[in-house]
Give the backbone structure.
Amino acid sequence: MPKNYISNSTESSRMFKSSLLESLSKVHFTVPLFIYIPVIAYLSYLSIAAGTVLGYLGYLVLGFAIWTVTEYILHRFVFHFVPKSKWGLRLHFIFHGVHHDYPRDKMRLVMPPSASIPMALILYFFFGLFFAVKANFYAFFGGFLIGYLMYDMMHYAMHHYNFKSGIMKRIKQHHMLHHYSDPDKGYGVSSALWDKIFRSDFPK
C-alpha cells in the first residue's frame, strides 16, 4: 500500500517564507470556540427575541443538518479538487494538501480564522438570500455554526485522541481510512452518513 503522507509528526512544516502568512496558517484548536460561541449565542438571542423558542429550535436543527452536507460537499468537491496549474496546485496544498501530507500537525487541524471568517461571511450572506424571516435565519445560521464547531473539534480529536469504543471510535476509523488508505473515499469527517448516501464510503 502506498504511503499517503509525508510525516505523522505533530509539529508544523513551514509553508510560507513570510512569517506573517505562516502565522496566519496556524491556529490552536480552541481558538474557533472563542470566536464562534459568542456569535452563536448572539444569533440565538436575536432569533428567540424576534420569534419563538419552537421556531428557533427547528431552524437550529435545520442549520446543523445543512452543515453536515456542506461539510461533505466542500471536502469532496472543493478541497479534493486537484487543479493542473502551478498556482492552482499551490492553493490546493495550502487549503488541504498540507493536511494530508502532515495529518497530525497540531496547529493545522482546525481552520484558521484567516480562512474561516471570510468563508463564514460568504455563507452568511449566501444563506441569507433564502430567508424572508430574520429570526428563522439567525437560528439556522447558529445551527450551521454549531455544526462547524463540532466538525472542527471532532477533527482535532480524531487525529490526537485514542478512542477505545463507541461512535467516536467508528468515526475516527472512517476518517483514518480516508487519510491512510484511500483519500478518494470517506469525505465525511464528522459523520459517514453522506458517504453512504453518495456511495463514497469504504467497502465493508
In short: The two ends are 18 Å apart (CA to CA).
